[in-house]
Design the sequence.
């Protein structure tokens, strides 16, 4: 029997590839052993099996690097959750520096970042949010290429707001809920940014669950790496929804292995809570950071279940006027839900050294996330 097609050798090569799909498979990078090697005599079979065992016990990939998003307009070091930030692998903070929305004159930058202090103690990495409408409207213009170039330059101006006296950014991240109809122009924008950025600055972007699952129609963005956002998966509009922030019964339909997705992906999970107010069976308001302690007055609120309340008497709640009969659902991200979603992520998306786990977002009242990823 010829040695070049040893079933053991083929199995080892396949096992290594399965553990790291991006590993090379060429004969030059994974050379086959010479004829005089492991299986040339029956006496060396035991030695081969030992190597096989060692291959199976290769070092596992370590836990992800922990990072945080900051999404508020004002960045005040005193408002940061230092307890959560102590989990950060690096002294970095990914901060939203601007929103780009469509106006009559074209794309405009809104909600610019305001630094309350020149020193935050963290290197700031800029994140720019772009509405899908901006892309769709740009596609309608006659001079599309000029519009993309102008928007790319405006994004870099906005990103410069993250520069401080002590550091400049080493990564630029874009956040956009692009669709099949806007993918082409969005990817052109990303390519323009890649051309304008220095070669040592990473370009990344967020990837939503539907963009991951439907990548054959929505495309894979041309960036250095992506961040798969595994939250806001439930139906916020429905009162019956248990938890719209994290709904594992929904995310499981999205988080399935996609072997053709050739982009390294980090993960993003939530670290916030809110209250959802419904009026006449429709979503009316979101109150960020609303806790049950604000609803303990039984003259104004009636507790229906652990996280559901009804307004008994019209009243103000965190500056919002609530009418009698309004319904309130409290939502937060407990460690059990976070762990379950994280397990869905690691079972669907390839792991790699240096992979990051982002938490959205700093400044939230509910900021304890545990250490479920270890």
Sequence:
């Amino acid at each position: 029997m010829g040695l070049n097609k040893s079933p053991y050798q083929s199995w080892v090569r396949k096992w290594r590839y399965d553990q790291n799909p991006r590993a090379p498979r060429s004969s030059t990078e994974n050379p086959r052993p010479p004829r005089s090697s492991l299986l040339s005599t029956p006496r060396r079979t035991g030695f081969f099996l030992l190597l096989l065992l060692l291959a199976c016990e290769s070092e596992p990939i370590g836990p992800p690097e922990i990072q945080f998003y900051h999404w508020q307009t004002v960045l005040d070091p005193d408002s940061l959750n230092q307890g959560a930030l102590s989990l950060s692998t690096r002294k970095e903070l990914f901060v939203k520096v601007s929103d780009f929305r469509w106006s009559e004159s074209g794309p405009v930058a809104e909600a610019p970042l305001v630094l309350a202090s020149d020193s935050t103690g963290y290197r700031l990495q800029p994140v720019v949010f772009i509405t899908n409408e901006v892309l769709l409207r740009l596609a309608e213009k006659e001079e599309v290429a000029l519009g993309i170039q102008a928007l790319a330059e405006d994004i870099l101006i906005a990103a410069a707001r993250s520069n401080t006296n002590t550091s400049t950014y080493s990564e630029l991240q874009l956040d956009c809920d692009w669709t099949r109809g806007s993918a082409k122009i969005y990817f052109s924008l990303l390519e323009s940014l890649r051309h304008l950025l220095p070669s040592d600055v990473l370009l990344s972007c967020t990837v939503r669950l539907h963009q991951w699952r439907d990548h054959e129609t929505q495309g894979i963005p041309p960036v250095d790496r992506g961040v798969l956002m595994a939250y806001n998966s439930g139906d916020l509009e429905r009162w019956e929804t248990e938890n719209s922030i994290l709904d594992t019964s929904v995310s499981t339909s999205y988080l399935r292995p996609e072997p053709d997705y050739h982009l390294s992906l980090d993960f993003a999970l939530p670290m916030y809570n809110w209250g959802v107010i419904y009026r006449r069976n429709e979503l009316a308001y979101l109150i960020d950071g609303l806790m049950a302690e604000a609803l303990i007055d039984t003259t104004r609120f009636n507790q229906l279940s652990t996280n559901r309340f009804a307004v008994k008497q019209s009243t103000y709640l965190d500056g919002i006027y609530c009418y009698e009969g309004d319904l309130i659902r409290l939502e937060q991200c407990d460690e059990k839900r976070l762990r379950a979603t994280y397990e869905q992520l690691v079972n669907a998306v390839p792991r790699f050294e240096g992979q990051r786990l982002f938490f959205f977002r700093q400044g939230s009242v509910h900021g304890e996330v545990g250490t479920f990823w270890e």
User: Anything to note?
Assistant: Residues 3 and 282 are 70 Å apart (CA to CA). The two ends are 46 Å apart (CA to CA). Residues 1-43 have pLDDT under 50 and may be disordered. The longest strand covers residues 92-103.
